[in-house]
Request: fold
Amino acid sequence: MDQNARLLLQKRNLTFAKKGIGLGLLTGAAWGLDGVLMGIVLGLAPFTNNLSIFAAPLVGACLHDGFAALWLFIFNVINGKWRDYARTLKTRQAKMIILAAILGGPIGMSGNLLGIYFAGASYTAAITAAYPAIGAILGSIFLKEKISPRVWAGIFLAIIGAFVVGFVPPEGSAYPHFYLGLGLASVAAIGWAMEGVISTYVMDLADSDIAIGIREMTSFFVYIIAILPMFGGIAYRILFAGFTSPAGWYIALIGLVGGASFLAWYRAMNMTGVGRAMGLNVTFALWSVFFGWLLNNLPITPNLIAGVVIISLGTILTIGNPKDLVNLRNR
Amino acid sequence: MNQMPVKYRVAQVIFQNEGISDQELLERLQSEYPLDRSVTEKGIGDYLLSLNAVGLIELTSVTFNNNKLKQCYKITDYGADRMKYIN
Reply:
């Protein structure tokens, strides 16, 4: 290979790797904004319905994923990729995308909400914040991803930072089913991590934009067909009320932010590997503080500042050297 | 016509034609997927970078051709193994 060709090739590979890192950072920022906006909207009617504390946020999640799926489909139509939806659904690996969607969407989200109910927000946040580490471990075992000690350190720092940001002192013995709550929070963390590893395996061959489109669509239909019926008529009443109230239409717009975040996350996992992409995704905790302060008058406390500093250091280490991303795996 | 997704087809064409260049691949895919606006030099180039990064394909040669980079690819052992489950 001549020198000019080698240099041009290196430059092109490096640009691809840097783009993957940029998308990893974007997914964290967009997910932080998405969470703050969803928190505001779930405080509006009809989601403030006190008949079921679980139904309202799950209806919100259902609407969110449904609108995100719609925006992603429109995006893929604009990019001329929409025919790949049907083609991908006909492949063997489509079942794996659907499995990943169920693990990360309804199972992950339900585990998180039930974990908060049974064990409190602090312990649930501490456990669920570990999903990048679980994802990185599973990725290095099953996908043989190369993760250097520096990147491992970055992932763990980002997790500690996310925990510090979300931590509030536990409330004594208010949780009679505490260990059940811890178990359900673990289900959420494992579900999210497994989603990342399974979908990354599928995206070796499948287009990431199509995989995330199918993922969001599946998540929406599983909520509608399997999760919401568990709450009887209440969930559907909230769902239909959502369409006739401004809150439902706000979620339609938030779905655009969520769709962008998911699109960037799936692309980043494909371009930089599961461990790095999840390490960058968990920076949503940092962005939640920023957008919470900007949009919702979140008071800035010392633990928020400490958490943000730790996440930032972790992110710098996680990004590492983009040259390491040219070959992601030990094969 | 029962087609496979474009990225799958990129890997399959490389599997069946060791040493195929990016330009030959693009021409072939454009004739197979005439209605897909995503089958462009950039679109296929991104698929090739992604398939290369995860170790499904590897470069066999890179040369300058008409002031453009001409890259030829072959499937790796891992890629050949994944081809068994392509449908």
Q: What stands out?
A: The mean pLDDT of chain A is 88. Residues 24-325 of chain A form one domain.
